[in-house]
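Researcher: Can you fold this with LLZGTKA7 in place?
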Amino acid sequence: MNTEYKNMAGRLIVALDYPDATQASALVEQLQGIPCYMKVGMQLFYAAGPDFMRNLKARGYSVFLDLKMHDIPNTVKGGAESITRLGVDMFNVHAAGGTQMMQAAYEGMNNALASDPSLSKPIIIAVTQLTSTTQSVLNEQIGVEGNIEDAVVRYANLAASAGLDGVVASAHEVPSIGKACGRDFITVTPGIRPAGSHLGDQARVLTPGEAIEQGSHYIVVGRPITSASNPREAAEQIIKEMMNVE
Ligand SMILES: O=c1ccn([C@@H]2O[C@H](COP(=O)(O)O)[C@@H](O)[C@H]2O)c(=O)[nH]1
């Protein structure tokens, strides 16, 4: 396996959005040997829980636990402590919870790290505006005025000032986030659709190659892989497209 392939595959986060461990494990089997990140979201975590996370870690995967915590600071602190104890590599909170809540996540993580030196520090990121949110939904339903990109950058600045490592945003907003928070501030971008694939409920979308071109550190891909007739081929095609970016 050459280094460029390994590096690019490590920037692909596969969303295991399945109702149970059996179906998720079947996909993991099909992708065996591809050194991608695996993402466990609410659907799978609520069904298969910590055991499934440990199983992924035992198989050698980097794991992103995508539970998007948004609660009072004390509760998020406790949640972050428990999540860190699972040994995950990345987890997230909603930036809309505010600075104190994001700092509480950091504190919870530090409590876990202090109590168990075998744990490594996970990346903590904040969700800015969901990639399914359109400009009109933001203004007319959520009640946030102004441009969606400005709202995303505002949240990114808030996350950076709270000491978090990065944000979840659409790849469209990555250059502006980089300008505001620095290029090392991690951008994790869902809303990725290979050319010609169904958008589904995603609104702010780019292709894998376009997202890498924009400077995304990680891209998140679910259905274009999980619903493909050959998921392994779909994942390999995405990595190839990522590698072809100059
Ligand atoms: O703004 C966000 C935050 C998280 N997600 C998650 O990413 C995947 C995307 O799945 P697709 O099937 O490729 O649409 C999914 O798990 C979401 O919960 C997001 O899409 N947007």
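Model: Folded with LLZGTKA7 in place. The radius of gyration is 17 Å.
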